[in-house]
Amino acid sequence: PRPNGRRHAAPARGGQAGSSAPSMGRLRERDARLRAQVLAGRREAVERQHGLGKRTARERLDLLLDEGSFLEIEMYRRHRSHGLKMGENRPHTDGVVAGSGTIFGRRVFVYAQDFTVFGGSLGEAHAAKIHKVMDLALENGAPLIGLNDSGGARIQEGVMSLDGYGGIFHRNVRASGVIPQISVILGPCAGGAAYSPALTDFTFMVRGSAQMYLTGPDVVEAVSGRRVTHAELGGADVHGELTGVATFVHDDEETCLEEVRYLVSLLPANNLEPAPAAAPRGAAGDERPRLAEIVPVEPNKPYDMRLVVEELVDDGEFIELHENWAPNVICALARLDGEVVGVVANQPMVLAGVLDADAAQKAARFVRFCDAFGIPLVTLVDVPGFLPGIEQEHAGVIRHGAKLLYAYCEATVPRVQVILRKAYGGAYIVMDSRSIGCDLSLAWPTNEIAVMGAEGAVNVLFRRELAAAADPEGLRAELVAEYSEQLMHPYYAAERGLVDDVIDPVRTRAAVARGLEMLRRKRASTPQRKHGNTPL
Ligand code: HXC
């Protein structure tokens, strides 16, 4: 081998047969190409991106992944189109940076669309890179995270762009329930592009910059005459509050990507591996006196169920899905005694905690996620029933409520139900009752489990007697007392095996932890079939 100095003084040109060291010319070319792919976006485009408070694809990956962990694939790939002046503009990366890295030391696969190159639009080469990284994620059993910031199908590449999207959707569905899939929307996500996030498990959006819609404001105006802004049509809050398309909404990219990291820290790598556990906390011995203070004894007094969740889980820490959509039900991931659990809870602070069409859809999807990935379910029940009304009936509450029922009936993960105060009617059945398969049902002594509340029941059962009575109010009070004494306590259900134990509220965390410990090795299966026909 030649000494270094000599090699620098007289670089060889081209590959020499028999030489293992690359020539200097080739190394320089490599360096130049590397720079070109790192700086694929024009300077003005990068400045514009920064001016909008947005980061470039690589800056985002730096925030998302552990330092120095990113391994990039196909960085030199670029399109081979010629029409519409495309032949003159062939930047490396083709507008998407793809590869793999780690989050808290655990492997993930990622792609980040780069708006500074062709507006992040998706053509044939761009799609091929995403397909590749999706295939790697599935084959390696690791979560897939897509950072979306794109003008959609690359117009110049015609149907090949649409074909590229189809390939993403197809892979999203194949990977569903096998690896966790997370979509992060950090800019436009228009047209059919919005269907990939919709097929994944979690969608993050950033206020101000993220938009999702099938047809943009111009098309809406042309068709309907109505002028709307991007944000009004499909901004983060629209999807975080109205449509439920966004699972999480954040004010800025930094917080958003930090939260993606936190979420990943709670998720299993795939459906065959357990969620990452932390050290046990000795929860089985815990007493939480605050629980008795948070929940009022009066059945109709509101309280914030999130405070109950805080008392139950480790460090009071949980990540809430769809915080502002259907807030009458809470869906959260947390750790309990070190193990990851999914919490579904009625929220008496909103609409008295009733279930409605949106709440049922929200909880159903969450239950199915937890079941697919082996995450035990803890269901906290305090529910007066389904929301009555013409709007709900016409909104299809039967169809949507059936989704939640179906999801619970199908779930084979460990399932613990805690009935805090009341559980009436169909909502009692749906909120993971014994009849639909919960493994362990715990009830507080104060609670009421019945077809309906005492007043309503007496009105139905004794309508004629009350109408004919000399003192209807006196009679009503008497009948209400009788009904309550006979039916409105947990022991009626406990005697019949529908409640396993009536627990002291302050020992709820301990009782749930012990129950989950008992169920840790649970194995249950569903009948062989192609798939069930979930009401959609
Ligand atoms: C090619 C595109 C592009 C696209 C943007 N660009 N979208 N190039 N195909 N779809 C380019 C622009 O020409 C521009 O290039 C650069 O990206 C930045 O775009 P701007 O328009 O300057 O940015 P901005 O003003 O921020 O507007 C962003 C935008 C707008 C709202 C996304 O670009 C837009 O409306 N684009 C078209 C969106 C669209 O209709 N896409 C097709 C959707 S249908 P220069 O060279 O000037 O920097 C679809 C079907 C998928 O996606 C179906 C799957 C089944």
UniProtKB/TrEMBL annotation:
The name this protein carries in UniProt is Acyl-CoA carboxylase subunit beta
UniProt-annotated stretches for the region Disordered: 1-27
Annotated InterPro entries: AccD/PCCB, AcCoA_carboxyl_beta, ClpP/crotonase-like_dom_sf, COA_CT_C, COA_CT_N
Domain named CoA carboxyltransferase C-terminal is located at 287-518
Q: Where is the CoA carboxyltransferase N-terminal domain?
A: 23-279
Give the matching Pfam families: Carboxyl_trans (PF01039)
Q: Which organism is it from?
A: Actinomadura miaoliensis
